[in-house]
Amino acid sequence: MRERGYDIDSPRGGGKSKLADDAGVHRAAVSRLIQRQSMPDLETMRRLAAVLGVPLRDMLIRSGRLSENDLPIAAGRGGETDAPRLLSPEEAARRMGVPPELQAVFVRVTKAFLPQVE
């Protein structure tokens, strides 16, 4: 956030407000994320990642919710034959601790961002 020019250390919160405005999210979500009080929902993470120029995968890993092993990069680059297994949206929801009553919504939203596989 600092590298992108957002002054998140100011007690007046100007950088946090600007980041929230730029991402189209609530300022409280940004403040809670910075203070590690809560984890934003997937849409908030997606918007913040876009504004900060960071892949969503990296945001999820940097947040500490998932590890690189949880979100392997798809193989196929450079002729790799041992492709890491990608998580299904259902498995990702379970690993991230999404409450059971919200898992169906998480899966539906996640699938909307995935490329369609034929």
Automatic annotation (TrEMBL):
Disordered: annotated segments: 1-23, 70-94
HTH cro/C1-type domain boundaries: 17-59
InterPro entries: Cro/C1-type_HTH, Lambda_DNA-bd_dom_sf
Highest taxon in the source lineage: Bacteria
Basic and acidic residues biased stretches: 1-10
SUPFAM superfamilies: lambda repressor-like DNA-binding domains
Protein name: Helix-turn-helix domain-containing protein
